[in-house]
Design brief:
about 300 residues; alpha+beta; four-stranded antiparallel sheet; about 60% helix; elongated
Length: about 300
């Protein structure tokens, strides 16, 4: 049973009259070496705050917020890599023990990851694959050890969004490391949290495959992921008014009633019939989205 509002996750950004301009700029910023990805990560936090606080405009303006987004994004990178520190320690230990420091051009790898930090999250799986498949390694590496590290990586990756949800609630970056609170959140809504993970994974794979438009599709995908994960704790039936204090309730209950919706096998079309300015201003008059089950993929 689908419990999250995937239509709004994918298409809510179009309720902002300036959505095309802000997504276009976000895609351009994402392509800037060294700072692009941190800026976009930080913008996700600003967007989450606007969603939760019912702030206008829905999409934060870039002017005056780029530096703030960069600082938030650097904090988010610290959280991500902080979670992976135990694995990084294992990698360094094994690299020394197996005398692998000369096996790879580490300086060039470091420079590449620093210039394009969006790829930094692939360090661990790439390392594990290299250890398993490389023909130049003559060390007998236990398969069970690599499998256990891979499982630990998967478990940590599964936990990280819950850490960022605590940041959305507390507005403090360090609260992402409150593992007790993160685990409690997952325990309260395991089905919704898993649904958010599966759906966001599919959206992310599709967005990264949209060459040559990937910078913009990835930026859009980040907004959709923020929407779906931040809806997870608000869907708690013990507090039915929680969604109404944010923009989530508006999108689930009211926004799409303003449109005439035509649904085909794979395409969903939206035509605005209520021409009046809504609580977020004048939304997009026409929207087209690709449809895959409950998921939607915004067409430019």
């Amino acid at each position: 049973m689908i419990t999250l509002d995937w239509r709004s996750a994918a298409l809510a950004c179009t309720a902002d009259p300036a959505w095309r301009r802000r997504i276009f700029r976000g895609g351009l910023l994402l392509m800037i070496p060294f700072v692009g990805w941190p800026i976009v990560l930080g913008y996700r936090r600003l967007f989450a705050e606007h969603l939760l606080d019912r702030t206008r405009p829905l999409l934060p303006v870039w002017h005056g917020n780029t530096r703030r987004a960069l600082l938030h994004g650097l904090g988010a990178m610290g959280v991500i890599h902080g979670y992976f520190l135990p694995i990084y320690a294992w990698m360094a230990l094994r690299t020394t023990e197996w005398q692998l420091w000369s096996a790879l051009p580490w300086i060039w790898i470091f420079l590449f990851v620093a210039a394009f930090p969006i790829f930094s999250t692939l360090i661990v799986p790439a390392w594990l694959c290299w250890l398993r498949l490389s023909a130049i390694i003559d060390v007998d590496i236990p398969t069970i050890e690599l499998a256990l590290v891979g499982m630990l990586f998967a478990a940590i990756t599964f936990m990280i969004p819950a850490g960022f949800l605590t940041v959305s609630q507390t507005r403090r970056t360090m609260s992402a490391f409150d593992l007790g609170r993160s685990l409690a959140l997952i325990k309260r809504a395991p089905r919704r949290y898993t649904e958010a993970w599966i759906g966001s994974g599919i959206l992310s794979l599709a967005a990264h495959a949209c060459l040559p438009l990937a910078p913009w599709s990835v930026f859009w995908c980040y907004l959709a992921i923020i929407h779906c994960f931040n809806e997870v704790p608000l869907a708690d039936e013990s507090d039915p008014s929680a969604g109404q204090r944010s923009w989530f309730g508006y999108f689930r209950d009211a926004h799409w009633t303003r449109y005439r919706i035509s649904t085909g096998s794979f395409v969903e079309s939206f035509t605005l019939e209520d021409k009046g300015a809504g609580p977020l201003g004048s939304p997009a008059p026409r929207i087209r989205a690709l449809r895959l089950g409950p998921l939607r993929f915004l067409c430019p």
